[in-house]
């Protein structure tokens, strides 16, 4: 063996690389042709079944035994994604449009007509895609002097616990404003391990193993828990499975990381219960995470026992992580099982102080996993990205744990009951939520109204609600109504809705 | 055009995909062979020049004109990285080792001997690589009852401004605990635009254009500004240039993102001035960012006018971003130029409240760039990762801007003078820092002592200092001494050092 041999082998490698790229080029030429035909025939560009077909065809093939299957899967996913991009390019070229923008833009929303007037009958047009767009549009209207009833956002209107108030006045004197351990103040993590145990006990379920504070990391909000977990576990070309309708954070993070999001849709008819065989069908060699969110935003659904058991079995069989976003744990009106009530170590629990203690702006969330090496990875990523969570905010969170958030649960449940009583009389269909703080209501077909039209109409009459299409592509005939506002305001809002849809 | 045609084309695509994967398989077989030969000949697995060779060979080739070059580059990078992984696997197999762990681990530091005693003469062994390891080891010793003088960390010992104290007591009552705009509270961004203008004015330099609050984003600490900027601008296979010795955040973030870090070393002999031709030599087609940090951590260096001019010219000529970490702006003892004093729009200023206002634990930093589209990208990434910075912390930062941090500058300068007076009499070499709050001191050669040995010795006698090797591979005969502690403690620490090195 000599260095000359290395040189010869390197030349072979270069040649092979060149051939690979020539074939990639050919593949993209075909993609262009397919794009043109699909545009002419008005077919959807993305076809999940064809994609999965390509993968299973390849991986049933013994020639690749020497290749790392994950690596191969990623390469194939990259080729597929580029093909889709090229087909879209072709479609837009033929349709005379510009290239579509890769990432969804949260365009700041502004009424198109100006200058503003206070004439209630003047109709503003909005560019709305999600609940955040509605929130921004509503804020703009308020700046113009309009009064808006906010039923679009998930920010509880309660005050944070009084313990937090007291702690804020002590922070300076106690000098609690330094760097902390990246994983978070130890007392806070200890407090959280009790807190989690208590939630399970309250719901009547056992924790599989004692919760070690060493397996908890405190993050700046639940969102960073998702971002961090995805960053730790996923690479471009990997895949996740989400169950829609869904809060779009998982989708957005996946998109950002070049990760494919495979969607399982659920329906009102099926009481928002996912079809397990559909989840199974989406699983392939690159599937790394199944994302769960129960009590669910936007439907309020809590998964039934049988479905949850089956999902855990599927995950176990395929070695897939279960990321369970349980930020609505305090707003369960039926017993709810946490992912930590299962004997499954590839599970990730995501929690937050935002909803439970009405502390959205403090930005304190946390991740717990029995998997110590995963938590260590998250700690490394957090150390890299932001050192640690602000100590004053951690201290406030620690003190909040001394309070009982049960009262918030009671109030929210009562509001949901009132809201549903009102909706009963209106042309909406819904199931009473098992948890959370929203009603996800379908607009009755005979109204012949899309979510965006209805959202716009309501906004022009002082009521902000979230469009269903922000939670998945199948839900453009839904709106999400939040109960994060005082009862009287909420009733006033529902009356305005009643008046408006009554006239339609 | 019919749907049957799509079906035929899809089959062609499958076949091509299969051929691609067969070639990929062949390529990895070659990688395995090369790995075996390199192991036998004891050659390095990674060879920068060969990598660049493959890329330039491919991209000089007209056959790929139809392929998106970024996409092709990523595919090639994936192939190269997988080859490296396979070569390493082969090497470890032949050497009888397990697969190497991909990411660097920051092993938590613990004294190896236990149980602990308070016997001052008992020598603990530490696993130390960076100032953070020293900090953790020192904290562990303190838990065991030892007294430690902390000269290893860059956390000012001052109190935050009294305005912050007052604001903390108002947060709850004023209900400043909600989600804010992702870019940060508008008043805070307005305040920062004045703050930045004032710093430039104080140093006697002009700002090229008025600082718009719309081009500022408030981040959870300066670190997230780096993480976010890198995420926005870099993809695996891209490159950055850093000037060492350096705070390791840029290196760590680059490493995490699969970005190559090319290093330009500076030396005490050259008064820490970088050699511009060396920077120029490192620039190639993949270079996206040059990272600057003046006043510098750890040397305290402020770049001279000529060097800075040349670096800006180099960046302009090659279309490279300049990321200027100016978190020590308040601790400049010589006039210092900010990157915003240049007429260059691919510049990024990174600032923080941590050092200037002694607010490390509040985790508030910011990024300003004239490049509005870059700031919009950062806003999107921050929205995705963490929604917004905690509102109470932003409110405190806003109030801090009403205070004058000049006093902190005066105290730190005086401490540096005292420290250097002491060091003069000791076997250390250094240049008096132009700024910041450290002395980066070289251990005189005749002591025949590495930084890690000295750090361990000092730690065992109650003084924590940072090892030079944490700031770059050429600096294992340096220690960094911080002036973030009261004068009397600092003098005590220096006396202990004096006693110890006197005995060597």
Structure characterization notes:
Chains A, B: Its cofactor is pyridoxal 5'-phosphate. Chains A, B: It comes from Candidatus Nitrosocosmicus oleophilus. Chains A, B: Residues 1-91 form the Chorismate mutase domain. Chains A, B: Pfam families: Aminotran_1_2, CM_2. Chains A, B: Homodimer. The structure is a homodimer of 504-residue chains. The first copy, chain A, has helices spanning 3-41, 48-59, 69-94, 131-143, 162-170, 186-203, 222-233, 249-256, 276-282, 305-318, 372-386, 391-400, 406-424, 451-459, 487-503, and strands at 149-151, 216-219, 239-244, 260-265, 287-292, 321-325, 347-352, 365-368, 428-429, 438-443, 463-467, 478-482. In chain A, strand 5, helix 10 and strand 6 (321-325) form a beta-alpha-beta unit. In chain A, helix 1 (3-41) crosses helix 3 (69-94), helix 6 runs parallel beside helix 12 and helix 7 crosses helix 11. Chain A is an alpha/beta fold. Chain A has 15 helices and twelve strands. In chain A, strands 2-8-7-6-5-3-4 form a seven-stranded mixed sheet, with helices on both faces. Chain A is globular. The longest helix of chain A has 39 residues, at 3-41. Chain A has three domains: 23-94, Chorismate Mutase Domain, subunit A, CATH 1.20.59; 131-158 and 406-503, Alpha-Beta Complex (Aspartate Aminotransferase, domain 1), CATH 3.90.1150; 175-400, Type I PLP-dependent aspartate aminotransferase-like (Major domain) (Aspartate Aminotransferase, domain 2, 3-Layer(aba) Sandwich). Chain A starts with a helix and ends with a helix. Chains A and B meet through helix 1, helix 2, helix 3, helix 5 and helix 7 of A and helix 1, helix 2, helix 3, helix 5 and helix 7 of B.
């Amino acid at each position: 063996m000599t260095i000359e041999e290395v040189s010869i082998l390197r030349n072979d490698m270069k040649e092979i690389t060149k051939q690979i790229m020539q074939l990639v080029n050919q593949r993209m030429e075909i993609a262009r042709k397919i794009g043109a035909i699909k545009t002419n025939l008005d077919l959807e560009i993305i076809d999940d079944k064809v994609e999965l077909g390509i993968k299973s065809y390849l991986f049933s093939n013994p020639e690749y035994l020497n290749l790392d299957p994950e690596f191969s899967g990623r390469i194939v996913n990259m080729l597929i994604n580029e093909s889709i991009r090229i087909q879209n390019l072709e479609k837009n070229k033929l349709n005379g449009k510009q290239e579509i923008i890769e990432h969804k833009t949260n365009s700041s929303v502004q009424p198109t007509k100006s200058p503003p007037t206070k004439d209630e009958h003047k109709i503003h047009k909005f560019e709305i895609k999600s609940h955040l767009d509605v929130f921004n549009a509503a804020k703009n209207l308020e700046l113009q002097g309009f009064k808006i009833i906010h039923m679009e956002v998930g920010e509880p209107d309660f005050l944070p616990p009084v313990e937090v108030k007291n702690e804020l006045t002590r922070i300076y004197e106690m000098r609690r404003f330094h760097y902390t351990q990246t994983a978070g103040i130890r007392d806070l993590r200890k407090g959280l391990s009790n807190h989690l145990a208590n939630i399970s006990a309250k719901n009547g379920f056992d924790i599989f193993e004692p919760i070690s504070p060493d397996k908890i990391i405190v993050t700046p909000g639940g969102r960073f828990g998702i971002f961090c977990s995805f960053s730790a576990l996923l690479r471009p070309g990997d895949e996740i499975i989400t169950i829609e309708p869904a809060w779009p954070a998982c989708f957005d993070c996946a998109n950002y990381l070049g990760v494919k999001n495979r969607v399982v849709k659920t329906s009102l008819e099926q009481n928002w219960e996912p079809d397990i065989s559909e989840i199974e069908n989406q699983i392939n060699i690159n599937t790394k995470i199944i994302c769960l969110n129960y009590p669910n935003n936007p439907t309020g659904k809590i998964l039934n026992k049988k479905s949850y058991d089956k999902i855990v079995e599927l995950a176990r069989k395929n070695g897939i992580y279960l990321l369970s976003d349980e930020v609505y744990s305090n707003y369960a009106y039926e017993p709810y099982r946490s992912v930590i009530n299962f004997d499954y170590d590839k599970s990730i629990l995501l929690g937050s102080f935002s909803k439970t203690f009405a502390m959205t702006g403090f930005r304190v969330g946390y991740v717990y996993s029995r998997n110590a090496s995963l938590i260590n990875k998250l700690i490394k990523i957090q150390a890299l990205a932001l050192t640690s969570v602000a100590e004053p905010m951690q201290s406030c969170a620690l003190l909040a744990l001394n309070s009982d958030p049960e009262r918030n649960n009671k109030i929210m449940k009562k509001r949901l009951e009132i809201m549903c009583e009102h909706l009963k009389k209106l042309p909406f269909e819904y199931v009473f939520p098992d948890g959370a703080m929203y009603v996800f209501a379908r607009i009755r077909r005979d109204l012949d109204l899309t979510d965006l039209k209805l959202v716009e109409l309501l906004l022009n009459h002082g009521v902000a609600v979230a469009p269903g299409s922000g939670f998945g592509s199948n839900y453009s005939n839904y709106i999400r109504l939040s109960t994060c506002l005082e009862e009287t305001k909420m009733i006033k809002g529902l009356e305005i809705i009643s008046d408006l849809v009554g006239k339609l």
